[in-house]
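Predict the 3D structure for this chain.
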Amino acid sequence: MKKKLIMLLFAVVMASTTCACSSGKEKEKTEQGSADKSGIQSDYKIDDYVTLGEYSGLTVTLAGSYEVTKDQVEEYALYNAKQQAKPVYKDTDKKVVEEGDTVNIDYEGKKDGVAFNGGTAQGHYLTIGSNDFIDGFEDGLIGKKVGETVDLNLTFPTQYPNKDLAGADVVFTVKINKIAKEDTSVKFKLTDEFAKENLSCDSVKEYKKQIKDQLELQNENQKQSDIRQAVINKLKEICTVKEPNGVLDERVTDYVKRFEAQNCKETTLEDYLKDNYNGKTVEEFRSESSAELKDSLHTELILEAIVKKEGMSLDEDAFKEYVNQQMSSYGYQDEDAFYNVYNSDAKEGEKFARKIYICNKALDKVVEDAKVETGSEKKS
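Done. Predicted structure below.
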């Protein structure tokens, strides 16, 4: 499983779990069963499970440097520009199309005898086997000869983004002009002209300035993420955590259920893991999931304890703004859709979202008070 940015850590974990204390198993009921000013609703008393260390004024050290060097700018600028450059091809004497060949083609696609938008091109280079076109298009050219024109009767995928073509039967008329190969002897040159035509910049100098700004922003974001992770690691060192009875097992079970529902609609979990997780067994998957969920649960409990000790209150207006920002960034249609990420019951999902929000605010406070050292750099 891939690690997540700390600001999204709890969202990721909670999205894969339901309320840890919502089953029929007996749980410790306390006065925290209803939400306080923090907005957190729990079926356990946090003080029974977390002993906080001195979390104010932590010192954390980050390895490495976050400065952007001239060499990094030059290297990335050239790499990025090359991605925008079209390959240079040279003709070959080959006459019959095979898998892996690059062909130059003219094509026209028709639905019900009428050409559709985006289905026509001349002099297009296509590598057979690249899967750049819908199923059957590239395979239909294998064995055909240069100069030949073929009609390909194909069907667009039912999930194709263009609804007018989704699931539609079409005919592509394709003429094979030649078989070519990339001319690797042509060395790419980053020029002002190329920058204007392909990079939306008036000059190479302007383009490299944009690249530098981009890399500096990425490094700063990475630094802030690393600081938050370092603070979390330190908190887990200085705080003592016990898990409320049964919580972790329920989260693991529910995570696996949600994972299976999302990824195994047409197969079994065993087969999906075998094909996509290097032959991992269900038990191995559960074990790895348990380790990550346990780590996140401990972080969550520590931050919940800090929220209580600091007497933090959930700012309703700020929380609403946060929800709207998340909805806008990730394309949720409405609040219920956003809350459903955390729980199939939107009301329960909102409870989790509130907890995530206030716990991250507690982390913000600890990070703000922390002393951060980065290599020779010291920040207080």
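The chain is about 45% helix and 15% strand.
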